[in-house]
Amino acid sequence: MSEIPQKKVSLEGKVIAITGANRGIGLGIADCCMANGALAVYSIDIGETGEDFKLVSERYPGKLHAITADVTKEANVTAAVDKIVSEAGALHGMVVNAGRTKHKPALDFTTEEIDQLWNINASKVGPIQCACKLTWTQLYGSFYCARVAARAFIKQGVKGSIVFTASMASYRPNKRVPSAPYGASKAGVKNMTHTLAMEWAQYGIRVNSVSPGLVKTAMTYWVEQQPDWEQQLKYYGGIPRLAEIEELGGAYVYLLSDAASYTTSIDIPVNGVIGIC
């Protein structure tokens, strides 16, 4: 990047990695990145690609790629990033997006369900022995992905950008469909954003996050189960609908671009419903 600040928000020539981009929000972010000029986008995901991935890939021939990896294992993430750099010649941005959600009262969560939420993609770890250990395991995947990306940036001499997907649930609970474990894990992601931004600024690495509100994906399955949901949305105020996945992309594209060269340690809420996450 030149010393002159960029006036145009563009990802032209950039190689971007996105965890959990085989579907849902991650795939929508990938679509927006390529629409804004990204040279290549790599999905790092433990799952299979589907029809939606194929359709997006066909719109951008040769630009969208998938690498199978468990993001809670640092060695796996390292191998994936090494493959990206080897194939594409560089890595300029990492979107740490992989995750899952489940909504129910705190007293009803099973140990297995908490383990799945806090380990990201249900990585197979041993039995949780204490609350302290459980608190730390929630952020393994996010931390490993960010650290692997940072090491790659430093090795390349690239002033890279890392963007976490946090959540409006990290700001406040959803009264109708609460999830204490999910909100806690995303609050941890936001805190990690600030700390890593402080540590890695010396390398020219920027670290930020985006907090989506209610987005129309398979993860918001519970919305249709609420008989009066439309009335609830109107009651809370703002824009009374769920966001389309593509409406999140602009925040990620900005933070990944050189137009955000002086932006680090911030969270961008993307939420049209004022009184609910």
Automatic annotation (TrEMBL):
Keywords: NADP, Oxidoreductase. GO terms for molecular function: oxidoreductase activity, acting on NAD(P)H, oxygen as acceptor; oxidoreductase activity, acting on the CH-OH group of donors, NAD or NADP as acceptor. The keyword Cell division does not apply. The keyword Oxidoreductase applies. SUPFAM superfamilies: NAD(P)-binding Rossmann-fold domains. Belongs to the short-chain dehydrogenases/reductases (SDR) family. This is Uncharacterized protein. It comes from Cercospora berteroae.
